[in-house]
Fold this sequence. Notes:
Order of helices and strands: HHEEEEEEEEEEEHEHEEHHEHEHEH
Protein name: DUF58 domain-containing protein
Low-confidence stretches: 176-189, 194-211, 220-230, 399-406
Transmembrane segments: 7-26, 32-56
Strand content: 25-35%
InterPro entries: DUF58
Domain DUF58: 196-283
Keywords: Membrane, Transmembrane, Transmembrane helix
CATH class of the largest domain: Alpha Beta
Amino acid sequence: MNLRKKIFLLIVIVTIIFSLIIKSPISLVPLIYIILSIIVSFIYLLLIKNSCRVVVDSNKKKMFKRLSKEIYNVKIINKSILIFPKVCFSLQLENIDGDIFKKYDYNFMLNPREEKNLEIEVEFPHIGMYVVKIVEVQIYGILDLFCLKYKPKWKEEIFVTPKIYPIEDFDIDTRRAIFPVNFTVPYKIDGEIYDDIREYIPGDPIKNIHWKLSAHANEYMTRILTTDAVSGVTIYLDFCSKNSVNILERANLNDAIVEIAYALSLYAIKNDRGVSLAYSEDNNPIFKVPNSILDLREKVYSLPKVSVEEIYPIELLVSQYGNSNSSLDNMFVITNNISVELISILSNFLDKGKRPILCLVEDELKKSVSEEMKKMLKDSSIEYYIAKSAKDFINSLGGALDVKDK
């Protein structure tokens, strides 16, 4: 109940009490006036009941980048010869769970036969599936005593994709090749030099390589082979939300995790490096290997969201896949959940010759990494970043990833 209705109700109560106290015919005049006002307002609302029409220009575009904007053209038509004293219109952006992220409210009056055109610029702040819909149109009668609520059936489902932040320079080490590589090996037979291509598996014992070369050339040979073997990066994404209970905090965290992983993956593929994604969904570990930019896009678009229901620990995920043959040398862990156990696990992989890189995503309003944890990270020599968004992280990159604290 708004303020105007409360004031009107107070006037009615005072008038009734006044009439009962005075007990005179003249004291009934205000009461009769109020009753007539209520009746007229109600009848007026009935007369304009079916006179409102809402038309929305449907948008053919159903996919938008995060932080992009789109204009929705809405037309509200008064088909009657009566005035709409007050019209309240609301359009909102909500996710598939019904959580509201944006709401646009308008109040105006419509003259007889008037068409009101609204150009509503809607911003898409977070990644995921959303619905743009008209909540309701409220049409008030005389004195705002009664309200007619009209709920159009129009709505549009859209998908908001990650914003792409290009990486200019990022050092992906080649520590262990992930497939056999062909080498061009010059050798001399009967005084003439020949070039031939032979396949040698990365990791072959040096004696075995000598044997292969010597057997082919009929003489014992020693060659220093420089490979162009390609390694890559395995990206571990943590969608477990232990600290963020607010829907907006979880959405911001999800945006940062997905966009950082997307930027790194795009960079790796464009530079002919291997890339794989490890994460948990519905508390089950998942490992995916995109083989092209198009395949990567599909896999990133199908990633789950940060959720309080997701309880599969990042420590277990890294331990499980980090020791497998499918895990690549560069281990990039993106998480909001830092622990002593995770630092210990990454330190062990560092000792084994791998390159763990930790990206801690902090909430914009509060810090999730204590000074004690920062000291442990520095003492462990693990490369790490602390960032609040993908843009924040990408801007802090400068060639090889050194130990940094953003």
